[in-house]
């Protein structure tokens, strides 16, 4: 059998443990040779005769799947979001699509809290001032006593709440499948999104981008928020209308935003880059060595399970 590991993050020699594990099942293992995300043409050049592909964020379109090798049985995502894969076309072609939900929950939750601290205490701006020769001491705000609004109380949202229990926060949370037992054990009040926008000092997003949540943060919802509010997004860039957020930050209708994701990535220019009241990081929240290795092993084992007729960890 033949496997393509297209996910760039686990194709380098640092992750030889994954490659060695794959060779126990696959007679041929092809690695992404480009040290970047594969183009559609490159995917098609590399996946010939493959039984399985462990993919990252490379596009897998319906047109590609119509030309996919007849041997291809499974696309196993190294990650959670599968919006880069045409699921309808995969289903029509009889190709199983798997992902690895929960594998990066700890990492993303930790990064969310890191952005929260950086925003509340204005750490990036203070660093920039010092290394630029200006000894300024920006006045920050305490986290203690603030209201944290969590939109999306899945595994990551719950971890953010669990990790921050010592900070004396009040918690409001929204999720269409609200976990009442978890909420009761962690002092979380079930709220509507509108209540969160109006009452929270910090709003953090932990939900997928769907037709219902696309550009959830826009002129209308930003206008509901406190002028002192901080918005954090470590989920999906398309949850935010970036033009409306730019206007809100420029006019100080909200105080600050901390974003680990943007609508278009990689991003090399944006009006948001010129603002002082924003932190932008390059989609790094799930990017720890431990997470990458664990997620890679899970994605590999999902592919092997499907090929062996066993139940994969998660079939989309």
Characteristics of this structure?
about 325 residues; alpha/beta; Rossmann fold; seven-stranded parallel β-sheet; 12 helices
Describe this structure in words.
The chain has 316 residues and is α/β, with parallel strands linked by helices. It folds into two domains: 121 residues, Rossmann fold, CATH 3.40.50; 176 residues, NAD(P)-binding Rossmann-like Domain (Rossmann fold, 3-Layer(aba) Sandwich). It contains twelve helices and twelve strands. The strands form two sheets. Strands 8-7-6-9-10-11-12 form a seven-stranded parallel beta sheet, with helices on both faces. It has a five-stranded parallel beta sheet with strand order 2-1-3-4-5. It is globular and about 60 Å long.
- In CATH, what is the homologous superfamily of the largest domain? NAD(P)-binding Rossmann-like Domain
Structural domain tally:
2
CATH topology annotation of the largest domain:
Rossmann fold
- Helical residue percent band: 25-40%
Q: Give the biggest beta sheet.
A: 7 strands, parallel
- The backbone outline, from C-alpha atoms, is globular
What is the residue-mean pLDDT, rounded to a whole number? 95
Radius of gyration, taken over Cα atoms and rounded to an integer in Å:
21 Å
Strand order of the largest sheet: 8-7-6-9-10-11-12
Structural class: alpha/beta
Helix count? 12
Termini separation comes to 23 Å
Helix and strand run: EHEHEHEHEHHEHEHEHEHEHEEH
**How many strand units?**
12
């Amino acid at each position: 059998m033949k496997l393509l590991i297209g996910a760039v993050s686990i194709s380098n020699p640092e992750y030889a443990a994954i490659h060695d594990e794959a060779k126990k099942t696959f007679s041929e293992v092809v690695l992404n040779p480009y040290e970047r995300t594969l183009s559609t043409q490159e995917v098609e050049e590399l996946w010939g005769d493959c039984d399985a592909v462990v993919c990252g964020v490379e596009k897998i379109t319906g047109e590609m799947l119509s030309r996919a090798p007849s041997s291809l049985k499974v696309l196993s995502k190294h990650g959670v979001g599968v919006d880069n894969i045409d699921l309808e076309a995969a289903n029509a072609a009889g190709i199983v699509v798997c992902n690895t939900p929960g594998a990066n929950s700890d990492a993303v939750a930790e990064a969310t809290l890191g952005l929260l601290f950086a925003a509340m205490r204005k750490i990036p701006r203070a660093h920039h001032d010092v290394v630029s020769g200006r000894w300024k001491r920006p006045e920050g705000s305490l986290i203690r006593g603030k209201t944290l609004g969590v939109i999306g109380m899945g595994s990551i949202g719950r971890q953010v709440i669990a990790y921050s229990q010592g900070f004396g926060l009040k918690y409001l949370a929204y999720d269409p499948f609200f976990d009442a037992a978890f909420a009761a054990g962690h002092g979380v009040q079930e709220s509507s999104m509108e209540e969160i926008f109006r009452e929270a000092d910090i709003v953090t997003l932990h939900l997928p981008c769907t037709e219902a949540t696309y550009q959830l943060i826009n002129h209308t919802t930003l206008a509901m928020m406190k002028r002192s509010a901080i918005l954090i997004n470590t989920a999906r860039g398309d949850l935010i209308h970036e033009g409306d957020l730019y206007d809100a930050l420029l006019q100080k209708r909200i105080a600050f935003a901390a974003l680990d994701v943007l609508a278009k990535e990689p991003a090399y220019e944006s009006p948001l880059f010129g603002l002082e009241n924003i932190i932008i990081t390059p989609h790094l929240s799930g990017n720890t060595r431990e997470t990458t290795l664990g997620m890679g092993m899970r994605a590999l084992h999902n592919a092997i399970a499907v090929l062996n007729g066993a139940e994969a960890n998660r079939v989309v």
